[in-house]
Amino acid sequence: MSSLDDLYRRVIMDHYQNPRNRGELQDDGSVTINLNNPTCGDRIQLQMKVENGKIEDVKFMGEGCSISMSSASMMTQAVKGATVEEALKLADIFSGLMKGEEIDDDDLDLGDIEALQGVAKFPARIKCATLAWKALQQGANQA
Predict the structure, then answer these.
(1) Which of 28, 59, 71, 115 suits a disulfide with 11, CB 3.0-4.6 Å?
(2) 3-class DSSP state of 9
(3) What is the enclosing helix (H) or strand (E) of 100?
(4) Among 49-53, 55-59, 106-110, 113-117, which stretch is predicted with the lowest mean pLDDT?
(5) Can you tell me whether residue 68 is helix, strand or coil?
(6) 18: alpha, beta or left? (left if phi > 0; alpha if psi -120 to 50)
(7) Phi/psi zone of residue 20: left (φ > 0), alpha (ψ -120 to 50 degrees), beta?
(8) Is the model's pTM score more than 0.90?
(9) How far is residue 128's CA from residue 110's CA, in Å, rounded to a whole number?
(10) How many angstroms separate the Cα of 121 from the Cα of each of 4, 99, 101, 114, 117?
(11) 72, 44 in Cβ contact below 8 A?
(12) How far is the C-alpha of 119 from the C-alpha of 107, rounded, in Å?
């Protein structure tokens, strides 16, 4: 195993064991999306507070494998404070990453999300990684 793979594995496990933005929003003006992956039992509830086209706050609750919960943690961290447009662009980029596509945008820093790129090698796990991102897309379209 390469040291980069080991680093990515540690980043994924850190987000799984210490999820960021886990919980529920107390604001009634938030959008709530519930999704599940019946193939492996992953489920997520994503809540987003969007004001003036910007994601002011985002939280998630759910149960699932380390890939799905880590991805949700990374996603919420990446889009909190972003515009809806920026979040949707990032979701498209992430979708391409899961398809094994190269990222062309040199100005884009994926941060911890980059640790999930290895999931593309395991087609059965792609749905785990993309569950939270699909919830984001649905929530952004509702907001």
Answers:
(1) 115
(2) helix
(3) none
(4) 106-110
(5) helix
(6) beta
(7) beta
(8) yes
(9) 19
(10) 15, 9, 12, 14, 8
(11) yes
(12) 23
